[in-house]
Amino acid sequence: QGGAFAPTLPLPIVPQASTRFAAETVDTFEAGFKSTLFERSLLLNATAFNAKYDNFQLNAFNGITFTVISVPEVTSYGVDSDFLWFTPVSALTFQGGLTWAVTQYGDDVVPAFPNLRGGRLSGAPMFSGSLALDYQAPIGDTLKGMFNVSAKYTSSQNTGSDLDPIKVQDAFTLVNARIGIGSQDNRWSVEAFAANLFDKDYMQIAISTPLQSGANNAFLGAPRTYGVTLRAGF
Length: 234
Known about the structure:
By secondary structure, the chain is mainly β. The protein is built from no helices and 15 strands.
């Protein structure tokens, strides 16, 4: 997103005389369970959490420098769950997880960052989930074949510390895959892999461009990467 140069910005920029900020404290409560079901073929875990932060330390970029902002109150609650399923098909397993998290800044915020008031924390999607399939099967008496594919879903989130609406990253899914062959005694293997298989573009962090009004830069996630891995044990 481009913007025009702003020559009216007050110069020179005077640094803060003090970099002190209040200590951050948190009261947190968790309750959950761990279970083994269906003759130990399914492992299922879940945890509910609730946390309240006082003087939450937010490292914010104001277009010129990074500054630690002390937010008087931040709350967070939700549920985190995961599972591992040993399927009836020999050597085939599924595993995954789902997290629902509600995070919110309080109403008392720094005037320079008005978007924080009542907003969801930056880099904190409400939903995230993962799913992976893994398969390993013998080939003859000494070899084995391996296959793995995994996906991670992230719902929309604001990637800017100031919660500027233009810095919102829409929901996206990343897919990784791996296929290979190796010895059954794990002495060696050859594996082809691909990360971000579908070459999804997404923002990790968005920041205001220094000395430019309304412009933003972003650190993007890694593009599609692929290659071959050789493993050997001695």
